[in-house]
Predict the structure.
Amino acid sequence: MERFELDILGCGSATPTTLHNPSSQVLNVRDKLFMIDCGEGTQLQFRRSKLRFGRLNHIFISHLHGDHCFGLIGLISTLGLLGRTGDLSIYSVAGLEDVLRPEIDFFCKDAPFKVKIETFDPAKNDIIYDDRSVSVSTIPLKHRVPCAGFLFKEKQKEAHLIPDMIKFYNIPVKELSRIKQGADFITEDGTVVPHERLTKPAEAARSYAYCSDTAYSEKIIPIIEGVDLLYHEATFADSDSYRARETGHSTARQAAQIAKLSNAKKLMLGHFSARYPDNNELLREALEVFPSTILANEGLREKL
């Protein structure tokens, strides 16, 4: 099975600590790397994770709070020093161009590649990236500033041919592509050989939803319904739920409730407040609602 795996580079909230870096992660889809948010220290964690800079072409920024984008200029500078020549595409809410472009022009004016910044509307559920392997759509989130999560949906692969059956019916090569796409085969005497007899189903397409930062919002449930892995912020414990309401964040229990209502297969908690020296407190609260829950942590690689 081809790769569809998540590397956590940072899962803390606004204040970096000795436990966690600010938000950043990389989704590897069939050896193409997609970065989601880029807080301070991201490029160092990228190296520690033994990821390849040359395979990173797309970065998605959820919102313009520093803990989600302060690492961009350092990363762009390093890519230039490494001799990158291919374009780098960054997808963001409005405003990043005004902030980042002057930094690029000042610090990276001689970079041998272009940085393209594309803006999306965080209030809409739109597809903002699409290729042969994956589509990426926005998830409107509820925060103090315009903010969106991202849903990555792998494209369903074609069915696998059964070699013995292809040989038995002496099927020409020119027919194989049509059969993989669902067509039946008709022999010279008019016999119809069903597609199902000639193929076996491909592995189910996988999906990943990133939801950080956001207050509790059931509006996202139809968008992320049945997702294989849901990363949902869990900035606070129940005892600090008043702070969650004040700051536009969620508790671990609320994150678990969203996972339960959306029929997610697995929940990963992240965006932890610096006030908790032990994130297992958050995990325990989430497990009471949604048993298939794990904690994010720097260096974690989760394979879907």
